[in-house]
Amino acid sequence: MTPDAPFAGRGVLVTGGSRGIGRAVVLAFARAGADVAFSFRQDRRSADAVARAVEELGRRAVVRQSDSADLEAAAGWVDEAARELGRLDCVVTSAGGTGSIGWEVPRAEEWTGLFRTHVVGPYATVRAAAPHLRRTKGSAVLVASIAGLLAYPEEIAYATVKAGTISLARSLAFALAPEVRVNAIAPGWVRTDLTRALYDDPRARGAIERAIPRGRWGEPEDIASGVLFLASDGARFITGETVAVDGGELLAWRIGLER
After folding, report:
1. What is the pLDDT of residues 84-98, one digit of tens each?
2. Alpha helices of the chain — where are they, by DSSP H?
3. Is the whole-model pTM more than 0.90?
4. Quick one: 11-252 is in which CATH superfamily?
5. Options 123, 152, 158, 199, the catalytic residue
């Protein structure tokens, strides 16, 4: 390892790596010297573009279309990634999606779908990766949300399952200790395709910015920086924690959209 490439010689797996936060995480690890395997659900064109970007950085990219919430599929994908990369030092679960607005709105299938994506998927991936991570004394980072740390009735299903992601990270940290560290990262408002409608609305964007002490939305690269820290040797004594990367929004929680 070198200061310019702190993850040189390491292998990293990222779920949901073709867009948004996942894409930024994949590219950040590649810039830091890692070879990266990542999965995507539907957007093949974006996945191929990310793979090319990784290869242009001189790193290896392994790409697979996969449903990370399928326990058997997750096991096969993780083993393939470890075999192709030669080793597995870190797993980042970034596959995600949002829910409907209004606490009375979500139906049973929405609850089930979000739970599979944000709890079952990360569990399946980390469970499959555990033998590999134990060998390398590696780590896992689960992408949660500050919505999982607070009351958020506007997206009650999403907030509830993200709280589950945080709880999962803590339980996995205990289960896989002492060899493997597991942490969660909790983004605030981040400018991605999932939040494009709000960001493109000047009124909504301004209201949210006023609720963030740093005065701006997060960028996917801001979250990726936090993920790299938690995966790094600098965080070697941190496990079972949830790190908010939200520009200070948790300091005084305010629902950003005025009614």
Report:
1. 999 999 999 998 888
2. 20-31, 44-56, 71-85, 108-115, 121-136, 156-176, 196-200, 202-210, 220-231
3. yes
4. NAD(P)-binding Rossmann-like Domain (3.40.50.720)
5. 158
